[in-house]
Amino acid sequence: MMLTDRSFAIRWTRERAALLAFFCLAVGTAGGWAVRAMRSPVKDPAAASATASAPQKDSSATDPGLKQMADAQAAPLMEKLRSDPENAALLTALGNVYYDAHEYPTAVDFYARVLHGKPADAAVRTDMGTAYWFMGNADRAIAEFEKALNYVPDNPNTLFNLGLVKWKGKMDAAGAIAAWERLLKTDPTYEQKGQVEEMLAAVKKHTNAAREAR
What is the pTM of this model? Predict the structure, then answer.
């Protein structure tokens, strides 16, 4: 999630910021990147998507205060959902609310209900993959990103996330490089292009150094 625009829950947040310090440590580079979360602007709050752009594992305990706030935000949406239980926009909005509160399993449940009726919704599937990553399941995250790319082959945010999880979660340098190079090729004006180029250079440098050390 990189750019946000939802009237009740989409916003710039510390929780959504990608902490790429792991990247600097992993590849031995100095400095870091402040990659933020982005969602495409939407007009209907209930139809907002939490498309992620830079996930990282979230091993922190759930904040009871965030959970309480999420439940309060969700209450009116849940009331509407009772009379329209298959409403994809409401289900997505509820998933977003619980994602913001770090209640990732609950968010996944709502996203899964959306995808049951709309399996080609690449944005929601990317969000679900990111939630799995925050839950510590890199394999499932990658699987969901790859499914999303089956529907929207050049989705830049999915490719961004796929590269990050392949590198951080699986130490798959080749996979990360392939995802990011594909992103830059298919979307040369990507907003985070400079950061992607830096990460590509860092992973390639790390890979070359590892080869030379053998």
Answer: 0.74
